[in-house]
Amino acid sequence: MTYTGRNRLADFARGLGALAIFSFLLVGFPVAMYKMCGSPIPDRVPSWDEISTTLMRPDYDNRLFLVTITLIGWGAWVLLVLISLAEMIGYLADRSTTILRGPVRPLQQLIRELVATAALTFSTVASIASSASAATQAHAATGIVAAAVPEPGTPGHQTSGDNGPQQRPTASNSAPLLMEQTSGSPEHEHPWRTHTIERGDTLWDLARRSYGSGVLYPKIFESSRNIAQPDGVPPLTDPDMLHPGQRVRLPRLGEPDVPSSPSRPPHPQPPAHSASPKQDKTSGDRTPAPLRSPSAEAAQSPVTAPPTDHSSSPAPGTPYDQDAGHSPLVISLPSGSRIGLGLAAAVSLAVAFTRLHRRRRHPLTFEPDSVGRAPEPPLPAAALKARQAHMNTYSDRDEPAPSDPDLVREDLKATQPGHLVIGTRGDHAVTVPLAGLSLGLSGDGAHAVARAITTELLAKARRDRVEIVVPHADAQTLFPGDDITAVAAALEGLIIASSTSAATDHLEAELVRRHRVLEMTEQPDVPALRTHDPAEPLSTTLLVATPSAENAATIRTLATRGHRYCIGVLVLGDWPAGTSLNLADDATVTNAYGADAEQFNKAHLFHLTADDAAGMLQTIRTATGFERTQTPPPVATTQPSDIETLADLDEPSTANQVPPPRAATEVREKPARLQVLGAVLLHTANGPITTGVRDYSEKLLAYLALHPKGVIRDQAISVLWPDRTPDSGVIAFNSATTNIRKLLRAGTGLTKPMYLNYIGGRYHIDPNLIEIDLWQLTATLDEAERATSDAERIKALAAVSDLYTGEFASGFESEWAQTHREYLRRTVVNALGRYVQLIHGDDPDRALATLERAITHDPYSEPLYREIMRLQARLGRLDAVQRTYQLLASRLSEIDAEPGKDSRQLLTELRSVSLSTGCRPSKGQGESL
What we know:
There is one protein chain. Among the domains are: 5-124, no CATH class; 322-622, Rossmann fold (3-Layer(aba) Sandwich), CATH 3.40.50; 658-817, Orthogonal Bundle (Arc Repressor Mutant, subunit A). It has 929 residues and is of the alpha/beta class. It starts with a helix and ends in a 17-residue tail after the last helix. Helix 9 crosses helix 18 (610-622), helix 22 (773-786) packs antiparallel against helix 23 and helix 28 (878-893) packs antiparallel against helix 29 (901-912). It has 29 helices and 22 strands. Residues 149-172, 228-329, 386-409 are annotated as: Disordered.
């Protein structure tokens, strides 16, 4: 349909009416006031005595009252003139004026609507003139085309299969806007032109006619959202919803930057062939189009799309090539699960949170016969596999892998996710928007796909970013065998409803609440509100449920209105109201239908087995600080199963045996030194070897440093390169060995030694040629363990703090390195605690300095801070106690945590002790040293 002459006449009449009202308010009103009341300007300035006399005497003749009314009327007219000038200037400049507050606001709103309506008079005349000009040009062009087309029956003339009338061009397939843009002098043109929406217009059409490409429609939407509209015409807040009479801005572009991947046009998408003139936005027959891309989604929001994690999948439409150095888009787990880098990054973050919480609460053990405690329960294999895949993305980009605190600090800056990569189609990512999502999954692979989507969002649910609402029956179907109710109690972003009706009731109430918040804050949608007030916790919400006949309409309404309120719907089953996908057992889309089905044809979606999902949910749960087993593990004197201590070595009896490294007190000059505490680094007399060292070599050196007795080659390959084939693993091992020997021979000048000896089927580092800092530290700890008196133990432990120069093999994120890194950290901290326990009575200041040095090695250990606070209180330094607690709170805030109940209670108890009277904390008040 077209914008008819009747509509134009109505707009013209409305504009004339607004002009008449304006004429009366600006001209007629002051003339009437002047005729009735005279000039508001007095002939002379009255004296103060005259004013006082007039105000104090009785107003029998109502003269004072009439003067007051006259002054108020003239004041209102002046205010009317000022607001009208401001609104007209803002309208002509296409800028919104500041919204006034108080009783003046209704007057400003009235004037704004009058200005917009009065402008219809001029815009309608211009529209009629331009239409007449366009019709003349079209008539001339038709004549030219008719002259060029052969007559029926002549060579070159093609006839259609039917004899119906020829279809006339509509606004959708004509291109006058593009012709208008290229005319005139660019340097004197406004940066945009204003266009009035007619029936049948879409932003896709306007972009195609203006710039030659419909995919540039987000530029029009960004420029046009929330500009002042004529009276009775709603603002443009959704590219899918256009109303006749709306005004949009068409930015003038020199050379439009067409995206490499097409974005979905707003509904309705322009048809592939000529469309019927009667087909408009309300037509139900539409060409399927892909879901919105992030670029389109960003265009619909006043803020840019939130940044993704380091491991976020490539942008939608971006091909990936693993051989070209890019990270793979898909991660295959041994169980058969197929996940994306988005889920891998989210689970990797959960692993980091879990480790930091374990470090934070791990108790100190100062028993003389214990160097540590049994290791924490191992993390699930699926979570560790996802973590490793995420870490590999950094090595693929030649970037250093972040530490656990680095990952957590980066996550604190993240915002609510706007879209999700749910699979691949060829070499491209399949992306869906979360706001307004209306997607149904059916078939054998439906639950596995829904499980992958839900798990990824739950891993991102921290800090009110995501909320998942799922009925209890559907939750049990997606995550069988796990206590999903307990998981929901630990996860702040998971709501288990008793039924589907209860879930929809919850979302309906949430939608009403968000609507009220938007009205109060005068924001068009939730993304705009987040920008306006970042502290408002409006999370991205997703309903995951199986619809029934009684609640299908409600779910459809939630999906339809959810775009504005950042609410989406993932339906378990067929979903004719949105986009419906039928999935094979391997999560391949076998059939897709609905408004956005085209993107999913032959796509392969990510999917997760129930066992892998249970392991990942367990990790997400422990990331909140909750552990499935709260009872502390028993004290043990053994290290992790694959680490060796020097005390286990026998004295060498032959030349082929490995001599044990000497204790730290024995100084021996060796041609090379290996540093594994901190970054792995080889040193010679000429300095550190910083060039030529391969990554394979560093990993092998660190692993061999953990095994003084040596390792079998196959054992090292299975640990260091578990994903490699046996042949490629042997090649990697041999290459690393060759590289190490070559570098050491060049650095030391000694060409005959092997440096890495092969004896009895095992490879080991030659202790006679290479000094290793880890071995020195281990020998010192063993010496303290074997000490028979406190004096000998103090002498040995005094060197521990200096020998522990950093965490083991920093930068290596493999599980074997992380396990030994954590074990060594706890061992050192416990050893320092034992040292403090032995000396605090005779030298409390030195004991305090040792504890303060210990928190540099483990800055998140609450038990360590509590020991410092107790010792400071014993020394009478109550101000220092408060500063230590504040330091603990500051450190824990870096990992999104806060001091626990024990630390808060200790601070309260120590504050209550009056050391000024000579009192000291009792044993019950926490004095454990």
